[in-house]
Design goal:
It is a single chain. By secondary structure, the chain is α+β, with helices and mostly antiparallel strands. The protein has a single domain, classed as Multidrug-efflux Transporter Regulator, Chain: A, Domain 2 (Orthogonal Bundle), CATH 1.10.1660. The chain has helices spanning about 15-20, 25-30, 50-60, and strands at about 10, 40, 45-50. The protein is globular and about 40 Å long. The chain contains three helices and three strands. The protein has a three-stranded antiparallel beta sheet. Helix 1 crosses helix 2 (about 25-30).
């Protein structure tokens, strides 16, 4: 899912972690495992909010007891 103007809305690791309700280490782990795309320059990682949201929803849906 992209924003209306089809641009990425990226945030640094700390804000990505806060938005997802997880630790910064978890965000980095998701990126290293290929579950989340890392953007930015060396030493300045950023993550797309829409991609992060989709990952969190998918993760929570898998953990729901049915």
């Amino acid at each position: 899912m992209r924003s209306a103007n089809n641009t990425r809305r990226t945030v640094p690791t700390q804000l990505a972690a806060m938005a997802a309700g997880v630790t910064e280490a978890t965000v980095r782990k998701w990126a290293s495992r290929g579950k989340l795309t890392r953007y930015g320059r060396p030493g300045r990682a950023e993550y797309d909010l829409d991609e992060l949201y989709e990952l969190v929803v998918e993760s929570r849906n898998r953990n729901v007891v049915r």
